Please model this.
Amino acid sequence: MSGQHRKCCHRCRNCSRCHCSDCTHSTGAISGEFQEHIEELQVGPTMSFTRTFSTQEAREITLFVKNVGGGPITAHMQNSPNGVDFVDDPQQLALAAGETGYLVPYIFSKYMRVAASGTAAGYARVWFQMQNNRYYQHPV
Model:
């Protein structure tokens, strides 16, 4: 990476690698980590729940739900401060057979799960997708 320079702002310190004051080796880079978990959820007339997932290190969260059964289903998120006590997120997905929808949390919580039910026995495929960002800033 030696030789990759930007115009110096004169507020930075010398790079620890090449000792250049305008090097891009240690400027504000963002390193993101993507996590995904897919779960099959059996649904029926009574409410079914996915496993509880820790979201405490997530920066961005999107949950996708696909109705892979033959009848309509309804799904929503539940948030929890402790993994035991859950509250319903106000978003509701009403999905016909074969339809996919998404949910994005309105609030931050330490734990989350998806709840779903249907008029008949069926299945939902749930994708938990989370982006964790770790920021590295050049000392000023």
